[in-house]
């Protein structure tokens, strides 16, 4: 629980800087190659398809995805446009 609270506080501090997304913020939890389970709970992003990445980011935005990670991710993706999300998916998979 302490880790979750800390992650929410950290995530909130990055929200303003993340308005146009910052891949360093993503890599901080998911790993430099997106090879980690963020906080030991998420899927490994590098193993996801582009459509899965897009669907998950949009799902975090609308609250339909994420279970335990929703509270951490929703503020991270709240201000992303559809084109931002597409660019993030492309950048992750390159």
Number of E-type strands: 0
Estimate the global geometry from the Cα principal axes. Answer: globular
User: How many structurally independent domains?
Assistant: 1
- The radius of gyration over CA amounts to 12 Å
Uncertain segments: 13-19
Strand residues, percent = under 5%
Distance between the termini: 34 Å
Helix content: 55-70%
Q: Look at the structure and give the mean pLDDT.
A: 84
Q: Biggest sheet, open or closed, and with what strands and sense?
A: none
Summarize the helix and strand pattern as letters.
Answer: HHHHH
Helical run tally? 5
Structural class, from secondary structure content? mainly alpha
How would you describe this protein?
The chain has helices spanning 2-14, 23-30, 50-62, 70-77, 82-93. The protein is mainly α. It has one domain (2-93). The chain is globular. Mean pLDDT is 84; it is low at 13-19.
Offer a quick outline of the entry.
Helix content is 57%, strand content 0%.
Could you list some keywords that capture this structure?
94 residues, mainly alpha, 5 helices, globular
């Amino acid at each position: 629980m302490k880790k979750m609270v800390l992650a929410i506080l950290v995530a909130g501090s990055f929200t303003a800087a993340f308005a146009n997304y910052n891949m360093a913020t993503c890599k901080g939890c998911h790993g430099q190659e997106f090879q980690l389970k963020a906080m030991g709970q998420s899927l490994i992003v590098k193993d996801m398809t582009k459509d899965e990445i897009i669907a998950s980011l949009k799902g975090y935005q609308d609250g339909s995805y994420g279970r335990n990670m929703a509270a951490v991710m929703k503020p991270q993706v709240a201000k992303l446009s559809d084109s931002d999300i597409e660019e993030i998916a492309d950048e992750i998979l390159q």
